[in-house]
Structures are given as structure tokens and as C-alpha cells.
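User: Some background: our group keeps a shared notebook of sequences we're curious about, and every so often someone picks one and asks for a predicted structure to add to the entry. Today it's my turn. The entry only has the sequence so far, pasted here. Could you supply the structure so I can complete it?
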Amino acid sequence: MQLRKALQNVVIGSTCFILVAVGFGAVGQAPAYAASSQASISASSASAQKASAIISQAKRLIGKVKYKFGVNNPSKLWFDCSSFTKYVFAKQGVSLKWGTKAQSKQGTYVSKSNLRAGDLIFFSVSTPGRINHVGIYIGNGKFIHNTIGSSVNGVITSNLSSYSKRYITARRVL
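Assistant: Of course. Here's the predicted structure to add to the notebook entry:
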């Protein structure tokens, strides 16, 4: 009986050692999942830095860009909403297609409750339910976009809540 109990302890102890060794790769090393977690944190940090640079670039264009429907003219800083986002993202090495419909299919879907700075947000500003405007979420319930209206022609920041009835979807491209 004592021999059987001693063998059980050895087997249990060996199993625990094997589980610990496998979990840590080798004794004294961090678990393999820690490395992938660290890589994920680094990628997230790089995305946040890129988003910050994109937003800064967009803000620098306030008062300099003119809205022109269907126009993509970087040399004169004349853009529609999607050529503006295309231009600003390209400055940080992110390639976007021209057109709200095309941009709304790039990247991955993001729910409104999970928006992060740098996400593209899409609206219907004329035909209900049809995407025809895009902006860049900048955080704190605000976004920046190139638009035209009775008192504006160019890049402005707006409250997302003011566009809640027009909001359609968002995409993460960073």
C-alpha cells in the first residue's frame, strides 16, 4: 500500500512538472502565449501611434482643404470626403481606395461601441440608408471629416452624436 502511494506521488509530481515545463517552454522562461500577447500589444501600440499621426495630419488641414464633390486633387488640396481620408491615411503609408462605398469594405467591421481613434466611420447624408459620407473617428465622441454645408466648406470636427441618425457603420483599417 505504501509503495502504491509513493508511486502515485511520483506520477502526480512528474505530471505537474511536465505541465509547468510545457506552459513555460522551459524552466525559467515566459510562457509562449506571453510572447504573442506582447506582439499584440506592440501592434496595438503601433496602430495607436499611426492613428495619432493620421488625426494630427487631418487637423493640420483644417482651413486649408476645400470640399469638391467627386474631386481628388492633392496638389490644390481639393477633395471630397473619401479622397480626403485616402490622402490623410496615405501620408502614413495606409492605402485606401477612393469612394465611400469602396472604403466601407476595407479593413474590418467595428461596432459603434468599440470605436477607436483612427477608425473610418460612414454615414448617409442624402439618401437614407446609403453610405455616401466618411470621416475619421478621433475619440471622445468626435470625428473629423471634409464636408460642405451652409456655413462650411472643408475639414471640420463634429460630434458623432449630431450624426447619430445618419450613422451606418465603421471600419478599422489600422
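Suggested note for the entry: The chain has four helices and nine strands. The chain has a mean pLDDT of 84.
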